Structures are given as C-alpha cells and as structure tokens.
Write the structure tokens for this entry.
Amino acid sequence: MRLHYLIHQNWKLKAAYSKNIQAVRELTVENRFGREVEFLALSQPDAGYPVLKSDKYMIGAGFTSDKLILAGELYYKKTNGLISVRAPRPDPSFMDATSPSEFYRLYTGDGWTAGFDLIAIYKLKKSETSISYTLSKISQQFDQLFNGEEFSPTEDRRHQVKITSQYRIGPFIASGLINYKTEASYIRLVRLEGQGGIDMATHETVTADLPAYFSLDLALDYSFRIAKQTALIGASIINVTDHKNINDIQHVGRIPRGAENQLFLTNETELLGRTFNVHFRYLID
C-alpha cells in the first residue's frame, strides 16, 4: 500500500506499508575449508523450517524542481522466521571422524532493520551530481545463539555515503563515484575458543571489526552514432586509490602446534583493488 500527498507543486509526502511472505528460503553453509555452499529449501513449519515473514513501514518527503531533487525516508522492517545454519563450536570436526553434517545446527529467530535514507540530486545542462546517505541498524535474535541476546550481523554497517558526478564536454562524458561504509563486526573463532560454543558465548566478547570500506571510481566515455543509434566507448578505473577493502574473513580450520596449542587458519576475502576496464555500449532506441 502506497500513499502520496502533494503539499505544493514541488513538495510531496509519502508513506508505504507492505507485508511479505517467502516460502522458498536460500540457506548458506560455510564448511571447515572456508567454502560457502548455497541451496534453496522449501519451508516446512511443522519440521522447524519456518516461513519468512516481514512487515515494512516507510514515511518520507520529497522536493522536486528543474535542477534539484531532495528525498528523505524513514523505514522500519520487522522480520520473523530468520534461519541460520552453523556449527556451535569452532571447527568441531578437527581430529574427529564423525560426519561433518552432524556438527551443524539450524537456528531460527527474528530481527528488525531501521534506518534513514537521504538523497540529493543537482542537475545542470552539462552535469549531474548526487549525494546519498544511509543511517541504519540491523538486529537479529536467536534463542539458541549468544544466550538469546540481540546482535548485529556482518551486513550491518551503520553509516553509508555515496557521491556520484557526471560532466559532459562535447561528445565526452566524465564521471566519478565515491563509496564509503563504516566498520562491520564479524565473529572471531579464535575468541570463541573456550567460551563453550557460539550458543553460550557473549556476542561482544567474540567479535572484531572489518575495516571501513572506501572506494573511488573514475570513468571517461566517448559518445558517437552508429546507424543513427548512440554508441559509447570508454575506460574506467575502479578503486583508484587501491584501498584494501575486506568483504569477509573466513575461518578455514585448525592445525596442531605443539603438544597442546592449536593454530587457526583464516582467509581474508578482498574486494577489487585498483582495476582498469575498457568497455563498449550500443544503445538501441
């Protein structure tokens, strides 16, 4: 359900509500070698595989003129029937002949997401610039994880800023993109060791932070006509500053080190470093 109310020729208020039901779920399992296996599963509430249900609420306001567009939205999403498949202890199959599938458990829980989105777009004859900002929080709660306390998953990055700009010089189009996201927490299995398992540990004591994400992308295109249709040829550089951007840290497992000590092996999954691209586009009207 969507509602729009025009206050003035340039100003409007808006609100929306939606109820969503999802019976087919996508589950992800990370094995002890750090590989993620994704598969689809049909919900079976009687067997402990719940249907995913969510209620979404949004209120906002917007301003539109020939050169300027402003829009802001407050949103809240309540989710029931979350599923997480994971092993309660770090690398439980280490030096154990039991089938690895015996160590995984399916946890169900609830969660919510709340935030504020703000976007501003300024247009001139030869240029266009946009700035967007998101302030958000994601929270999840599973009765059998972290003593039932709420926690934020890795996807939760509190502040996100994106700036894009485009400028035309004759047949050339120059553009740039700045993207920034604050830190995100993840579970460190090294800290989890000795805590009695992920179900009994306190979330704050076993987490660390992924670094903040930053990237600068630049591109230059040349526009021309082929058979009365527009074509573009250009080059771009992704992550110009070559910042080290970490998307995830995977725990591969343990190896013996001495009589009693054991060593965890981890693997950082890095996003693109400085990357050069050449591209061609042909637009059919």
Remarks:
- The chain has one domain: 2-219.
- The first strand starts at residue 2 and ends at 6.
